[in-house]
Amino acid sequence: MRLPRRRPRLLAALLLTPLLAGCFASGSGDGDGGTADAKDGSRLRVALAFPPAENLSPYGADATILSRLGVTEGLTALDANGAAAPALAASWRRENDRTWLFTLREAAFQDGTEVTPAAVAASLTHATEAKPAPAALSGVTLTAKAEGAGVVRVTTDAPDPVLPLRLSSPSLAILSPKAYDAKGAADPAGTATGPFELTDVEGSTSARLDRFDDYWGGRAQASGIDARFIADGTARANALRTGQLDLAEAIPVAQAATLDADSRRETATTRTTSLHLNARSGAFENASLRAAARAAVDTSALAEGVYENHADAGTGIYGPAVTWAASKRVPPARSARASRPSDTSITLATYDNRPELPEVAQVLKQQLEKAGFTVKLKVSEYSRLESDALAGRFDAFVLARNTLVDTGDPVAVLAGDYTCDGGYNIAQLCDKTVDAAVAKAESTADTAERQDAVMAAEAAILRTDAVVPLVHQRVVTGVGRQVSGVLLDPYERTLVGTGTRR
Known about the structure:
By secondary structure, this protein is of the alpha+beta class. 25% of the residues lie in helices and 22% in strands. Helix 12 packs antiparallel against helix 13 and helix 12 packs parallel to helix 14. The longest helix has 17 residues. It is globular and about 65 Å long.
């Protein structure tokens, strides 16, 4: 559908300068921010691996598509060290253990209206009412209210020492009042605040974005983005190699060597690929069979074989990119001993948007069959599998998950993926010990103590064998020779910003 273009206002582009040079959210990877003389900059041709699964709703997996294309922003962003940094909020302070005050910068929505405390509070309120709840709000209840000129008061029902990190989540992006319909559904087209405005969407195949000239952080150097959703990794690599693309995310490791050295960027990420076992129903409701599956897996064969050493063997939910995790890791006390599968039939599913995953699943199939399981393999695009995976219709699911993407806080992935009320609980895990351990981590304010609590919670989760960490990934991004200013970060929230150009 073609979306109407709105007449841009020129105030912010003329009066405001980039204020996030040290952050991933809007600056250039080469340090060159947006400039007012970029009026005739070339459009960028970008290929993303994942087609929209939820009609580009900001509340689910599609939120990172919007973030990576420079469409949406939150009150805060993550800097290179994973700390909360200013975005739509210029500053903040903690009033008490449950209340924070965020001071907004002068900014405009892409529909021409002003970013006001009332609009921000309403946007956050819509996020709290979304079903399912955004992963960043798992286990958290918050209330947002306008508080005088330029200030938003955010109150949580329990102390939340990492609220500024939580509000950096792509799923908590701020949209204008015009974005929401009567049922609370959010449409980011022309209603966000980022340097690029979503103007045209062709189903799950492509999208057009035009430069938002009124962006508070300065006008982008590229005049727009032509985004294509290409699930096939080889096709993405070929299109980059033949000059049809400027940027291609998630280049398959098998294709990386075919690109020139100056056309590929390898980034250590906080993404872990894991085997999730359905602990609620089917064969793996039996803890002893989960233990048997875990014992059958050889992670080194995956890191060295499938990933061709572009990944590290799985050691836990958090990998080497989470630099403090290894020294604090607690060995799990397994809750069950492995039993013999005796030809137990299971369905193992994964998606092909990340091209290594079908091969990972094939190797796992062989390993599990060698241990005595009978395995049926199902592979499809992620968008076709997500609802069934979340509903627990598979016995096992191979998932590549960035453990810090939701908030930058390591507790969030635990609460969202492994607690009884978690909104992204593919393992269908509901364990009182796990919930208690995650709750303790959530309530711990001191950074070092919070990290200790996180690793204790990780041990409690691994104890159940509902998740088997396989590999910790490094991601290869294809970058055209004439392209500069690409935003690469371990959280995989950004790709294109004001300084990205060719």
